[in-house]
Design goal:
alpha/beta; Methyltransferase, Methionine Synthase (B12-binding Domains), Chain A, domain 1; Rossmann fold; 2 domains; 9 helices; 56% helix; globular; binds cobalamin
């Protein structure tokens, strides 16, 4: 099977919410020596983008999104251990990351956390639906360089603003990075976040810049 065929298999498996095929595609990708990051970004994520479009256009309902997300999560779990570390040597920095309170979308945040680890960051992933105080407490505990927050819904965007305000109120010397489909550079500027990352690659690049400042 060619690389393109495997990527297409992964993408279609997510679109169809076919967990077994998604897992099979991930295993095939590993067996064929494909880059797991490419399979996540160009196969699985491409499928999830299509699912989002279909949901937007009301061509599919929420249960289909749920099975698609499950298929993607299972396939990522197969691929992740095979991502080779891009950084050996001293830790680049410490990041606390999570999805803000009220928001349970965590696939993209998980990919960002994985990629930061691959590039040498120590990452403390608080998961999803994370209250502001939990970000602050963890950042203090681990002496974080960066707090990264994710949100995919407009309704939970204020959580990132509240986090920014709480960091200032606590006098924490930590940089902030926001991301997730509901966010953009303008939003980051508006709330005073130090960086915005559109995807996992950009998140790594911005995080590296933040620790060098
Ligand atoms: C999968 C999905 C779900 C899954 C989530 C499973 C999971 N474990 O995450 C399930 C089915 C559970 C779900 C539930 C809901 N969903 Co939903 N969901 C999606 C969908 C289709 C895809 C999201 C996804 O995983 N994309 C793939 C990943 C790889 O991309 P990503 O998340 O954007 O992440 C990348 C970047 O954003 C960035 N990034 C992400 N986080 C961070 C963090 C930092 C610090 C940085 C720098 C970068 C970064 O890097 C990532 C990797 O490249 C989106 C559609 C969309 N267009 O986003 C809707 C969407 C986000 N959902 C939506 C809604 C409304 C809901 C529900 C309220 C539905 C309902 N009626 O119940 C619930 C939410 C309940 C809650 N309280 O949170 C809306 C939000 C609308 C809005 N603007 O407010 C969307 C946009 C769909 C739509 N068009 O209506 N959903």
């Amino acid at each position: 099977m060619s690389k393109e065929d495997i990527l297409r298999m992964a993408m279609n498996a997510v679109i169809e919410g076919d967990e077994d095929t998604a897992v099979a595609a991930a295993k095939k990708a590993i067996a064929e020596g494909l880059n797991p990051v490419e399979v996540i970004t160009e196969g699985l994520s491409a499928g999830m983008t299509k699912v989002g479009d279909l949901f937007n256009n009301e061509e599919i309902s929420l249960p289909f999104v749920i099975v698609a997300a499950d298929a993607m999560t299972k396939a990522i779990a197969i691929l992740e251990p095979h991502i080779p570390p891009e950084h050996r040597g001293e830790k680049v920095g410490t990041v606390v990351i999570g999805t803000v309170e009220g928001d349970i979308h965590d696939i993209g945040k998980g990919i960002v956390a994985t990629m930061l680890r691959v590039y040498g960051f120590e990452v403390h992933d608080l998961g999803r639906d994370v209250p502001v105080q939990a970000f602050i407490d963890k950042a203090k505990e681990v002496n974080a360089d960066i707090i990264g927050s994710s949100t995919l819904m407009t309704t939970t965007l204020p959580g990132q603003k509240a986090l920014q305000e709480a960091i200032q109120a606590a006098g924490l010397k930590v940089k902030t990075m926001v991301g997730g489909a509901a966010t953009n550079q303008q939003w980051a500027d508006k709330i005073g976040a130090n960086a915005y990352g559109e995807n996992a690659t950009e998140a790594v690049q911005k995080a590296k810049e933040l620790v060098q400042q």
